[in-house]
């Protein structure tokens, strides 16, 4: 039982393996949209579509975040974690860490 069970697996192959195990164990899958019997073809098809949409959504969100980071970098506003021994000074420049 879960709120969005298709998010249990970020890849469709892992999700379908989970559905196969549920079918063998005669387990039902329950989420906010309904109750699914993994032995029924229509229910497996619907759960597979939900997983595919969830996986696509994950990739779209990741690409949007990457695009936002590139946009900030082009404007000079991207702050990243610096290697050990370096810090940002008060003006935003990278300098050697004065606190050894």
| Overall shape | elongated
Stretches where pLDDT falls below 50 for ≥5 residues? Answer: none
User: Mind describing the biggest β-sheet?
Assistant: 2 strands, antiparallel
Note the quaternary state here: single chain
Structural class, by secondary structure, is alpha+beta
- Secondary-structure element order, as H and E? HEEHEE
Distance between the termini: 52 Å
Global Rg: 22 Å
Q: How many helices? A: 2
Taking strands numbered 1, 2, ... along the chain, how are they ordered across the largest sheet? 1-2
Number of domains: 1
How would you state the average pLDDT, rounded? 86
Structure description:
The chain is of the alpha+beta class and 100 residues long. The chain has one domain (5-96). It contains two helices and four strands; from the N terminus they run H-E-E-H-E-E. Helix 1 packs antiparallel against helix 2 (41-75). The longest helix has 35 residues, at 41-75. The chain is elongated and about 65 Å long.
Describe, in short, the structure shown:
The protein has 100 residues and is of the alpha+beta class. The protein is built from 2 helices and 4 strands, in the order αββαββ.
Sum up the structure in keywords:
single chain, 100 residues, alpha+beta, two-stranded antiparallel ribbon, 48% helix, elongated
Task: Describe how the helices and strands are arranged.
Layout: H1 12-24, E1 28-31, E2 34-37, H2 41-75, E3 86-88, E4 94-96
Antiparallel strand pairs: 1-2, 3-4
């Amino acid at each position: 039982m879960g709120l969005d069970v298709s998010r249990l697996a970020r890849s469709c192959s892992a999700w379908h393996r989970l559905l196969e195990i549920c079918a063998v164990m005669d387990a039902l899958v329950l989420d906010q949209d309904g109750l699914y019997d993994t032995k029924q073809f229509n229910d497996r098809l619907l759960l597979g579509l939900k997983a595919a949409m969830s996986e696509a959504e994950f990739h779209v969100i990741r690409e949007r975040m990457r695009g936002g980071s590139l946009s900030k970098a082009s404007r000079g506003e991207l702050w990243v974690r610096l290697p050990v021994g370096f810090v940002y000074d008060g003006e935003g420049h990278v300098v050697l860490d004065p606190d050894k």
